[in-house]
Amino acid sequence: MDIQADLQQMYLDWLKERVKYRDIHDAIEITTPLLDHHNDFMQIYVTKHGSSLRLSDAGYIMNDLDMSGIDIDSSLRRKEILQVILNRYGVSISANDELFVDTSVEMFPQRKHMLLQAMMAVNDMFMTSRTNVSSIFLEEVENFFIKNEVVYVQNINFTGRSGLTHSFDFVLPKMKSKPERVVQTFNNPTRQNAEVLLFAWNDTRGTRQADTQLYAILNDADRKVSPDVLSALGQYEVKDILWTKREKHLMDLIA
Predict the structure, then answer these.
(1) What tens digit of pLDDT does each residue of 201-235 get?
(2) Rounded to 5 degrees, what are φ and ψ at 244?
(3) Which of 73, 81, 150, 155 could form a disulfide with 88, with the two C-beta atoms 3.0–4.6 Å apart?
(4) What's the predicted TM-score (pTM) here?
(5) Would you identify the CATH topology of the domain 137-253?
């Protein structure tokens, strides 16, 4: 029995069974089982755009950040960080602050997947209890790598066995005494984030070297990480690094 393939298929089936479609005026509303930080289901909208389809969040993510007191437009650095996140998923932002992608019918599943990943990434990275957000967690991790001379490549996409493309924050290359290490960061670690990461990893790990290891760096500076998150990661041999204890794991990251 191929447990990895079975788990991968179970996750895909779970997504398909719980996605709901509804016609609204000139658009199709797609409600997914993925939750935002309010525990509301994430929704995207599909409209005809010339000969293509346009998938959009209708401005929800950016409006929610604004309503939460996180003003991206007031800071050039925040705008740069936002653009980096969107670029890695191939997502654009409109003048009305809509996150969107244009796609053909054939590429619809992949592009929908990338838009949802971008929505989750933006939501995760900018949602913080700190009132003065001069940097985001991803940037803090990168600065930690630079300070300690950790060799890395950033924003790497792998295509999985499902045909979907998955984006990871960092890859630390294989060295003489260390295997290849894939690193994903979470500013706001949740059970859902962990499950999405595990699906991406199960889908892509067969395309990597047999000894490649996955690390999850979890921000516990503002809040304690739930035991459910740590348990979910541990069940699949994902090595978790709590941000407040990062120095203890430095030797795992240095080549």
Answers:
(1) 988 988 899 999 999 999 998 889 999 999 999 98
(2) -70, -10
(3) 155
(4) 0.78
(5) Trna Endonuclease; Chain: A, domain 1 (3.40.1350)
